[in-house]
Amino acid sequence: MMKTMRIAVAVLLFASFGFAQKEVPMPKDLPPYGAEKPLPVPSVKSARLDNGLTVWLVSEPEFPKVAFTVAVRSACTVTGL
After folding, report:
1. How far is CA 67 from CA 3, 10, 53, 63, in A?
2. Fewer Cβ atoms within 10 A, N terminus or C terminus of the chain?
């Protein structure tokens, strides 16, 4: 049974290569590449609250949305679950 399964998988794998899309050559009349632009790095402001929580503010004025991520570092382990 297992040998039959391996043979079937091998046949399907080799058959899929025959139906794979052939590589199409790139057109010769493409425009030249543009000048490279530097990637703007957003400003990051960091503050530590009274309870020890560190807050980072990353301002990107081009994106009108608010998103946040909470990450907690801990040395304790939970057992008994």
Report:
1. 52, 47, 18, 10
2. C
User: pLDDT tens digits, residue range 62-78?
Assistant: 766 777 777 777 777 66
pTM of the complete model: 0.37
Residues 57 and 55: their CA atoms lie apart, in Å, by 7
Report the 3 state secondary structure along the chain: CHHHHHHHHHHHHHHHHHCCCCCCCCCCCCCCCCCCCCCCCCEEEEEECCCCCEEEEEECCCCCCCCCCCCCCCCCCCCCC
